[in-house]
Amino acid sequence: MHPTLAYAAHSPTSPLVPFQFQRRALKPGDVHINILFCGVCHSDIHQARDEWGNAAFPMVPGHEIVGKVSAVGSAVTRFKIGDTVGVGCLVGSCRICSECQDDLEQYCDNPVFTYNSPDPNGGTTYGGYSDNIVVDEHFVLHIADSLDPAAAAPLLCAGITTYSPLRHWQVGAGDKVGVVGLGGLGHMAVKFAKALGAHVVLFTTTPSKIADAKRLGADEVVVSKNPDEMAAHNGSFDFILNTVAAPHDLDAYTLLLKRDGTLCLVGVPDQPHPSPSVSALIFRRRSIAGSLIGGIKETQEMLDFCAAHNITSDIELIAIQDINSAFERVLKSDVKYRFVIDLASLRS
Ligand code: NAP
Ligand code: ZN
Ligand code: ZN
């Protein structure tokens, strides 16, 4: 067993506080990781505040984990002590269903999420707001030494959640691609869409983010509260990735799609969006779709793409003691563009 320092939420309304527990002893296929950095995803807030209705307390959030391998089980073949590794949203799946066989573990009927998930080893999974974790090697990712480990942490969720739909819908040169919301996911989507060769338009509610959006790779920026700016893009997009974490009018974006264009939702608001207009869909055969993180094979592909293109997240490094104020700043869209916790602070 591994004694573990962490921060946990004990109810939807209480702040995160110090918490101690034991990680399991290594099984033959397990990797033990000393966690260096963990990103702060908006999903951590949704779940710690029970906005999706599935919260189990105490809850140790965190699914953007980067650390160093400190021990390996006897059957581990792909990792050795000292490797820099990552863990994202998944630490288990059935491994035998058709989704798992297709390397799409995120769509397995029995996924084990990194936190707030029933743990087949007993109890509930606890995430990366902690100093170590034990994970089956299938769900551990290699992180290139050329990437800054703190700035690489958000790739494990914000990165793969935006990379996967851009690849699935085959975004590339010649495509006009929209990204809605310049937050943790949105700023990664801008970087990936640009690296894939698309013409990238960022939609924001925050005019003060315009210069940053252009620096991050957006060719154009639209302030979505301005109807004239929106209407100038009617019927022109191949693909729009919507990362917004709050309910809003989706028709404003479907109307901007070309024939056969797709609006893909990755944001998961606590309340439903207003029902979309059918006529905005049937004229021009447009689609509204959704996408969930990415499989393990594709997550490794994304990390290797990041190493090849020198892509990481733009981060604000914080101590774990600052986590509650960080949550409040994320809710105000006031983060540039991902908080990452330095877990060394757990021991200070
Ligand atoms: P985030 O950093 O808070 O970014 C969301 C952005 O949405 C904000 O920065 C803001 O951008 C915009 N926004 C916020 N409130 C808005 C409103 N009322 N109307 C319009 N725009 C608004 O959050 P994140 O970590 O990127 O996560 C985004 C969402 O994706 C969350 O719901 C999260 O749970 C979900 N998520 C889904 C998956 C998946 O697999 N599908 C994975 C991870 C996260 P501007 O200031 O530019 O407008
Ligand atoms: Zn996440
Ligand atoms: Zn499965």
Automatic annotation (TrEMBL):
Please list the residue ranges annotated as the Enoyl reductase (ER) domain: 11-341
**Keywords for this entry?**
Metal-binding, Oxidoreductase, Zinc
The coiled-coil segments of this chain are none
Provide a Gene Ontology MF annotation, just one. Answer: alcohol dehydrogenase (NADP+) activity
Q: Which Pfam families match?
A: ADH_N, ADH_zinc_N
Q: Which InterPro entries match?
A: ADH-like_C, ADH-like_N, ADH_Zn_CS, CAD-like, D-isomer_DH_CS1, ER, GroES-like_sf, NAD(P)-bd_dom_sf
The cofactors required by this protein are: Zn(2+)
Would you say which domain of life the source belongs to?
A: Bacteria
Tell me the PANTHER family matching this sequence. Answer: ALDEHYDE REDUCTASE
The Swiss-Prot or TrEMBL record describes its family as follows: Belongs to the zinc-containing alcohol dehydrogenase family.
Q: What is this protein called?
A: Hydroxyacid dehydrogenase
Upper lineage is:
Bacteria, Pseudomonadati, Pseudomonadota, Gammaproteobacteria, Methylococcales
